[in-house]
Specification:
5-stranded antiparallel beta sheet, 7-stranded antiparallel beta sheet
């Protein structure tokens, strides 16, 4: 009688009581429960999987919200400078028999200003040394071409003020150095003057010697003269200076093969040269100060000067 009552009582109390008081009976009950659960497990295991298209259509998991993790996963900014700007440095090197002398600089820390003389050559400054000292510049170089009457042979913009006229025909105006209203320096091929409406500094000169890293075709290979030039890597790195006597074609090929700076030249612009070439480097650039000006040098209309921003 006691066992029968206990079984009934355990039936309403749970299997654990039955198992503890009646081991054999408890085992029998567990087997029964397990047998009943098999169809349920089998049904769950045999359910069809979600279609692959549905899985593909699901939204990807949200990116981590922690700032440090997000920063690690974010792609690098291609516009961000990879290294700090370097101080202007003097360069003296031979490339294919041509001697280059000038200075490299970074446009993030330095800029080129156009100094024009509205009253004509030597009306204010006779040499690069004079204009550099007057404007406290690190370097000065003669710049654009001019007519026998002393007028600019192309457009000139200095501190936003325009002089001269757009040269749309001559190769001596086929290249443009400019600084935009935002301070961006560039060398570009002559296009429309409307592209430079916001320029605050500009010299129209030419021809281009290299473009997109390659030597420009069709340059004169006969005339040999000293050259004044301006180079860039297409970004923030620049070089300004002079060369020994050479042809324009030979100069373009030399610059396409090797650079006087520590980076490849993308764009190179020929400035007024020959007897006009005049370079002054101050003592603020290691290796200065000195002036490179020929004995028969003639005064020029305008200059490019290098100054810190």
């Amino acid at each position: 009688m006691a066992r029968t009552v206990s079984e009934r009582t355990c039936a309403s109390s749970g299997l654990t009581l039955v198992t503890r008081r009646h081991p054999l009976l408890g085992m029998a009950m567990l087997r029964a429960v397990f047998a009943l659960s098999l169809p349920v497990l089998a049904f769950s295991a045999c359910r069809p999987a979600a279609p692959l298209d549905a899985i593909r259509g699901q939204a990807p998991p949200a990116p981590p919200s922690h700032p440090a993790v997000t920063a690690l996963l974010a792609p690098p900014n291609p516009q961000a400078p990879s290294s700090p700007a370097k101080a202007p440095a003097l360069t003296q090197v031979f490339i294919r028999g041509i001697h280059f002398e000038g200075a490299s600089f970074d446009a993030r820390s330095h800029r080129l200003l156009v100094i024009d003389q509205p009253n004509g050559p030597a009306s204010t400054f006779a040499t690069c040394q004079e204009v550099a000292r007057q404007h406290d510049a690190l370097l000065a170089l003669n710049a654009g071409f001019f007519t026998p009457d002393g007028d600019p042979l192309g457009l000139v913009i200095s501190k936003g003020k325009r002089t001269g006229a757009w040269n749309s025909a001559s190769s001596l105006g086929s290249g443009i150095f400019s600084e935009s209203a935002t301070g961006h320096l560039s060398i570009t091929r002559r296009g429309s003057p409307t592209a430079f409406l916001d320029a605050r500094e500009l010299i129209q000169a030419g021809p281009l010697l290299t473009e997109n890293g390659g030597a420009v075709g069709g340059l004169d290979a006969g005339k040999i003269a000293v050259r004044s030039i301006l180079l860039t890597d297409g970004g923030t790195r620049w070089w300004i200076g002079k060369t020994s006597a050479c042809s324009l074609a030979g100069l373009g090929e030399a610059l396409a093969s090797q650079s006087p700076a520590a980076w490849p030249v993308q764009h190179a612009l020929n400035l007024d040269g020959g007897r006009s070439t005049d370079l002054y480097v101050s003592a603020r650039i290691p290796g200065g100060s000195f002036e490179r000006r020929g004995f028969l040098n003639r005064p020029v209309r305008n200059f490019l000067i290098l100054k810190p921003k």
